[in-house]
Amino acid sequence: MQTQRRVFLMTVAATGAAVLASGARAQAKLDDKDPQAVALGYVSDATKADKAKYPKYAAGQACGNCALFQGKPADAAGPCPLFAGKTVAAKGWCSAYAKKA
Ligand code: SF4
Fold first, then answer.
1. More confident residue, 69 or 1
2. Contact by Cβ (8 Å): 93, 81
3. For ligand 1, atom 6, which residue shows the shortest CA distance?
4. Are 101 and 61 in contact (CB under 8 A)?
5. What is the domain partition of the chain in residue ranges?
6. pTM of structure
7. What are the beta bridge partners of residue 88?
8. pLDDT digit string, tens, across residues 37-79
9. Exposed, middle or buried, 75 (CB in 10 Å: 0-12/13-18/19+)?
10. Minimum CA distance residue for ligand 1 atom 4
11. CATH (residue range 27-89)
12. pLDDT of 11-30, one tens digit each?
């Protein structure tokens, strides 16, 4: 009588943990001197907005309460679709400001 042995090989699929280092995804802060920032009158400090050039600026306006700001209300900075790949300061401002509804 023959004993048949079956060996079951269990393959443990080691999933290559695709851990995305959050730091690698951090976006660069938009510089006030960035050509696109200059073109739109962006300043990282809204109180420094060029009021002569942009008379529509009113005190209290800031990226943090702009409809285009993509960060959370408490974030110090967040992305803005106008400046892809960069973050704008919540206290910043640019001439495309639109009050959040
Ligand atoms: Fe800030 Fe709004 Fe201008 Fe974006 S569009 S830079 S959030 S003021």
1. 69
2. no
3. 94
4. no
5. 27-89
6. 0.76
7. 78
8. 999 999 999 999 999 999 999 999 999 999 999 999 899 999 9
9. middle
10. 80
11. 4.10.490.10
12. 333 323 333 334 446 789 99
